[in-house]
Request: fold
Amino acid sequence: MAEVLVLAELNPAGGSDNPTVRKTTLEALTAARALGEPSAVVLGAPGTAASVRAQLAEYGAAKVYVAESDDIEQFLVAPKAEVLAQLVAEKAPAAVVIPSSPEGKEIAGRLAIKTGSGFLTDVTEIAADGTATQVAFAGQTIVHSQVTVGTPIYTLRGNSVTPEPAPAAAAEEPVTVSVSEAAKQSRVVDRVVEQKSSRPELTEASIVVSGGRGVASAENFSIIEALADSLGAAVGASRAAVDSGFYPHTFQVGQTGKTVSPQLYIAVGISGAIQHRAGMQTSKTIVAINKDPEAPIFELADFGIIGDLNTVVPAATEQITARK
Ligand code: FAD
Reply:
């Protein structure tokens, strides 16, 4: 069976000595199985692969290429692209699948240049014949594309594919890492671990509750957070809400913010501008709460509640909490 390289995106949640596999990696392993037999590529400091191998095995990695070196940890993405290019040259895989994070997209772009290959970003599906599905023009158009040059490289949009276990051997194969001087031009001088809330990561959450300008103040975002917490959801915000200082920019959903595709997206006090829709309209079920029955978000919503969010949201939170 053809080999497909899958770049493992890791989450240093338990500290850098004990990384975990991000859900995006499990999604990429699942999507890659349409094309062949996935081999995970673990890039990191010495000792990285040991704690993630079992999970990669559970989700279908027949092999795990272990490229461990301080050079990978100490420099930005260039060494990772070099190692992947070396593996593409040696193994001649049928394709490479990379999670569509900002880092993943940069690695994919560099890899495409190095290997003379075509690449498709933010794909939501990969078919057995290599055809990728992308959502374009703020979700107005669905595009099907194929790479026609080199080794197809895909970056897979988070939450587009449900991770499915498929136990495999995850046989470890060490990779000798030799990083060129050119790839060492930007060194990481410091890493600051962000203060994590107990809520799930926005782009990986299966439920997202987002607030817009209609929430009216930073203080009032507490009702959005309470609803999110009752559902075990992440909190998002429209650009108008973050620009007004109601919520931090890192939680912005939309064309110039994060792209989310959860099972359930609840838009509260959000009008549904095209730039907001671009970041959430592939959500499986969309619920809108808005006092304006003409708000464009209702065109997109599966379920709509016309009403004042200050009444509807606390009432919903109370009911959800009571039923738990
Ligand atoms: P509004 O459009 O002001 O809507 C507020 C809604 O709240 C209204 O529908 C109103 O009826 C409702 N409301 C008010 N009070 C209540 C209440 N008490 N109860 C219930 N409902 C109430 N926007 C993004 O979100 N993400 C992006 O990434 C993004 N990128 C952009 C990029 C560009 C280049 C540009 C030009 C714009 C971008 N925007 C983006 C901005 C976008 O065009 C909209 O301005 C923005 O999405 C509006 O946010 P909103 O829906 O919260 O606010």
